[in-house]
Amino acid sequence: MRHSFNKRAQFTVAAVLCVTSPCVALAAPDNIVVKIGHAAPLTGGSAHLGKDDENGARLAIEEINAAGLTIGGKNVTLQLESEDDAGDPRQATQVAQKLVDDKAVAVIGHLNSGTSIPASRIYNDAGIVEISPSATNPTYTKQGFKTTYRLVATDAQQGPALADYASKVLKARTVAIIDDSTAYGQGLANEFEKRAKAAGLTVVSHDATTDKSIDFRGILTKIKGERPDVIMYGGMDSTGGPLAKQATQLAIPAKVLAGDGVCTPKVAELAGAASKNIICSIAGLPLERMERGKDFEKRYVARFNKPIEVYAPFTYDAVYIIVDAMKRSGSIQAKDILEAVASTSYTGVIGTTRFDAQGDLKQSAISLYQYVDGKQRLLDVVKM
Fold it and tell me: Which intervals hold domain Leucine-binding protein (predicted)?
């Protein structure tokens, strides 16, 4: 009877602790289940990118659980709670609140800047670290929050890298800009425009569309008359592919420059033969330049039977960064994990991660690509 009472008391204490703070649930007296949140679009036009991110995080958690994890002398099992924000800012805040209410100790996400920024306030208010694998808008880490981190370069680096390539390599003198009116697309386009003007390029026009548009013939017909040397598009692959294809159909010879939202395997399918006119950037090292990239790719493909899209290595490392913070703090409490993440020095698939005071990477890179026969081919890597 005494033994039974003690077990019951242990579960009761655990339940009380998890109600009062973002923490954990006791699966058994000697095994604690810790929730790590993940948020990305799992439906809609960017669902393939969101699922890729989820897979990266899931692979890390499965490996860690299989190897066994002990924190503070207690056995810990990680549990991934993945939520669909549909790439929508409103849904992102609802997802963020759900992850807070469900006692996630840390969150990996969101994928888009337009969802990461509004969700970040909720995580900040709850004192939960948020590590985005791909939010590039500079605003994300400039809000004064101690909870926001990212594993990629920002648009303040990505936009200029594209503009410099247009000016120095393509020898462009005029550019037409289009953005999809999102925090990501507009932010990237604006950063590109600033550097383009500083480099002496003439911006003949800057048009706005939406992240749901797939017919760009009206805008492109106008741009054809402006005869720009290049077109810069700030948006995602689901819209960037059709835009490039329609530009070719209208016999516009200009190269289409775009950021990491467009720089995916899927854009080649959507653009068809017109993908050869796309030059795009990814806010990080290419997989083949990552020291542990090939090994990660083998394990990812073996587990999910599909190729990596873009940022799965970054979500994979994000999980390990969170676990590294747990180990260094000896704690599974959200506040302790948050405090430890600030002093991260972790070497994983994407390289060595160290954060500055804002939560940005101390060292980052921009990779530039073109498409040859529908396949990405690396053009250059710019260290930042």
Answer: 34-374
Is 105 in a helix, a strand, or coil?
coil
pLDDT at 18 over 50: no
CB 271 within 8 A of CB 245: yes
Task: Give yes or no for residue 1 having a pLDDT over 70.
Answer: no
Residue found under tokens 């493909």: 301
Which CATH number is 155-282 given?
3.40.50.2300
How far is the C-alpha of 169 from the C-alpha of 106, rounded, in Å?
42
Q: What are phi and psi of 323, to 5 degrees?
A: -65, -40
Residues 264/376, Cβ–Cβ less than 8 Å:
no
Please give the DSSP secondary-structure letter assigned to residue 166: I
Where does CATH 3.40.50.2300 sit in the chain? 2-153+289-363, 155-282
| Residue 264, helix vs strand vs coil | coil
Closest CA to 238 of 368, 44, 92, 376: 44
Check whether domain 2-153+289-363 has CATH 3.30.360.10, yes or no: no
- Under DSSP, is residue 125 helix (H, G, I), strand (E, B) or coil? helix
> Does residue 7 carry a pLDDT above 70?
no
> Do 332 and 32 form a contact (C-beta atoms < 8 A)?
yes
- The kind and range of the H/E element at 377 are strand 375-383
Q: By the 8 A CB rule, do 215 and 239 touch?
A: no
Helix (H, G, I), strand (E, B) or coil at 265: helix
What is the reported pLDDT for 17? 40
Within 29-154, where are the H helices? 47-67, 89-101, 113-126
